[in-house]
Each structure stands twice: as C-alpha cells, then as structure tokens.
Amino acid sequence: MARLLGSPPKFHPAEWDTANKMQCASTKSQKSRSERMIAESQRLLDETEKTTWKTQSDVNKKIEQRREEIKFWKQELNNMLEQIVHETEVLLTFKTRLEKSLESCKEPLVIAQICLLNRQRRAGIDLVNDEVEQELMKETEVFQGVIALLERTLEQTNEQIRLNRSTKYNLEMDLKDKFTALMIDDYCASLTNNSPDIRYNDSALKIEGNFVSPEDWVDFSNINVEKAEKQRNNSLALRALIDGILSQTASDMRKQCETVNTAFRNRVKEVKDVKHKLETLLAMVIEETASQEKNIAALKKAIADKEGPVKVSQTRLEARKHRPNVELCYDTVQYGLTSEVQEITKNIQRQDKLAEAEADLKGLSRRQLSLEEEIQVKENTLYIDEVLCMQMRESVSINNF
Asked: Which residue windows are coiled coil (predicted)?
C-alpha cells in the first residue's frame, strides 16, 4: 500500500529531451505529409476540374455537332419528302389523264363495232369486204390495242404511286425519329451544372435497345434518300412515258378514224354513182319496154288487119274450084288470087316477130325487176353507210388528255 502511494519514477533529462525532439520531429513529419497531401489534392482537384470541364466541353461540342448532323439529314429528308409528295401529286394528275383517255376510247370502239354489225345488214352483192370494212376492222383493232396499252400503263402508274407513298412513309418515319432525336439533343444541350432537373441515375450507363453505329445511322437515312430519289426518277420517267403514250395513241386513233371516215365518204360516193347509173339504165329499160309494147301492139294490129283479105282470097279460090268443065281455067284471075294468097300468107308468116318481141318484152321486164332490186340494195347500203354509220360517227371525238 505504501508502495502504491509512492512517487512515480523519474525520467532522465536526456530522455525528456529525446521525447521532445521526437514529438517535434513527428509533428513536422506529419505536417509535411499533410502539406504534400494538400498539394496533391489541390493538384488533383485542378486536374479533375480541367478534365471534367474539358470532357464536358467536348461532349457539348459533340452534342452540337450531332445536332447539326441531325439537322442536315432532317433537311435532306424534308427536301426529298417535299419532292416525292409533289411528284406523287403530279403523277396522280397523269393517272387522271390516263383514266379519262381510257374512258374516251370506249365509245369510239362501240361505234366501230356497231358500224360493223350494221354493215352486216347490207344485201346481195353489196355485202362485200370493201375498204370500209377493212378499215373498220383495223380501227377496232387500234382501239382495242390502245385500251390494252392504257390499262397496262394505268396499272404501272398505280404501282408507282404505291411505291411513292411507301417511300413517303419511310421518309416521314425517319423524319419523325430525327425530330425526336433533335428534341432530346436540344434538351441535352440546354443542360448545365446548375440546371434544376439534373440528377443522379445509376442506370444511365446500362445499354438498352439496339444501338447502331454512326455509319449505320448515316447509311439508314442515306438509303432512304437514295430510294426516294430512285422512285422520283422512276416517276419522272413514267410521266414522260405517259405523255408519249397519250400523244401517240391519240394521233393513231385520230388518224385511223379519219381513214375510216374517208373510206366511208368514198364508198358512199361510189355507191351513189352506181345507183345513178342503175337508175339511168332503169329509165332506159322502162322507155324501151314502152317502145316494145307499142311494137307488139302494132304487130298484133297488122296481123288482125290481114285476116279479112286472106279470108276473101281463100274464099274466092275455094269458090272458083267449082267452075264446071273447061271453065276450070287457070286464068289471070286464078293466077292473081294464088299470088295474093301466097303474098298475104308470106306476110302473115313474117309476123312471127311478134313472139320474139314478146320474148324481148319479158326480158325487159326481168331486167327492170333486177335493176329495181339492185337499186333497192344500193339504197339500203346508202342508208346503212350514210345515215346509220356516218351520222353516228360524227359524235366520235379523239381528244388529247
């Protein structure tokens, strides 16, 4: 107990001096380390500040560059979209022209077919495969060929319009994505270190969705523009083709239509000339018939006029046969009566011309009937060609669309 309450041990002055020196040395060392740490920390702070500022500045520049790239492609896509929309609208007007042209071909084709049917009603020798018939058949073929060509071209036009609209859709979708991307990057560009809505997001580095390379990104829009340009060029070429087809088909149809009309006019004139000749012949036959009828009447009268004298002569001769004996003399009277009977009989026999005249009259009657029938055939032909066909063809109008 007494030991515990005794005085603590005393250190040697050298120990005290050493302890003080150690404290001083330790403190200086600690201070030196702290100063180095402070200097290192300041250097690190300066470095990280510069690095962070530089990195953020680089990112800001990249965002700005990206915004410019998006704006460039957005403008390219927008320009191409305007062109393809305009081209589609113009192509739609060409489609309307094709439809109108196609519709306008139907009536002339029907008229040509009706003309062919009407001309089947020609009678007799006039049912001939003449130039009009041949040109009408050719006209029908021309119109049918034009209709088939216009229908194929219309189908091609509808397909091109579909392709244009498909291209328009792809451009619009790309533009929509570009617009959204530009809005996002505009928002990113507006953010600063003092923006109120910035926050930590641990999941920001996680890759979500299908990222594409910058090259693929450029290729995607470039391909859309190239496809749109290709369809636009195809549409331009198709419009030029349609223009040529509409012009050429209208010219072909108009030319063939005029050829048919000319053939009709020539045929009508030809039939009218023949009809006029037949009517002239008919008038001649009628006149000749009247003359022959007068001739027959004169022949019959002449025969009738000879009946009295021949009866007298023959009665005298018969009576003189009964003279008696030597009185039955061949005297001058007998000779004269015999000569008279022979002369009258000979003259009567010459009247056999009556039968020939009557045969000629029958021939004239048959010829008159034949001419009248042929004139009716020509009148029927003229009615079909001039009234039914030519008047109906006056409504045919071949227009350029």
From this structure: 31-83, 347-381
Task: Report the Cα 138 to chain-centroid distance in Å.
Answer: 19
What is the percentage of the chain residues whose pLDDT exceeds 70? 90
Give the tens place of pLDDT for each residue, 61-103.
Answer: 999 999 999 999 999 999 999 999 999 999 999 999 999 999 9
Q: With 0-12 CB in 10 A as exposed, 13-18 as middle and 19+ as buried, what is 267?
A: buried
Query: Residue 68 — φ and ψ, nearest 5°?
Result: -65, -40
CATH number for the domain formed by residue range(s) 52-191+215-266 = 1.20.1270
Helix ranges (H only) for 120-130 are: none
211 CB-near residues (< 8 Å, 6+ apart): none
d(CA 294, CA 288): 10
Cα–Cα distance, 302 to 304 (Å, whole number)? 5
* Cα 329–chain centre separation: 113
Model pLDDT for residues 32-66, shown as the tens digit of each residue: 888 888 988 888 888 888 888 898 889 999 999 99
> Is the separation of the CB atoms in 246 and 400 below 8 Å?
yes
In Å, what is the CA distance from 250 to each residue of 112, 142, 289, 321?
A: 16, 11, 57, 103
Q: Cα–Cα distance between 201 and 366 in angstroms, integer? A: 120
Residues whose CB falls within 8 Å of the CB of residue 90, separated by 6 or more in sequence, listed in order: 239
Query: Could you tell me which residues come within 8 angstroms of residue 1 by beta carbon, excluding any fewer than 6 positions away?
Result: none
Averaged pLDDT, 237-243 = 96
* Euclidean distance between CA atoms 109 and 112, whole angstroms: 5
Nearest residue to 94 via CA among 156, 149, 166, 147: 156
Closest among 275, 264, 269 to 390, alpha carbons compared: 264
| DSSP-assigned letter for residue 398 | -
Domain-wise residue ranges, the chain: 52-191+215-266, 282-395
Asked whether 233 and 378 are in contact (CB, 8 A), the reply is no
- Residue/partner pairs of 369-374 with CB below 8 Å, 24 or more apart: 371/278, 371/281, 371/282, 371/285, 372/282, 373/124, 374/124, 374/125, 374/278
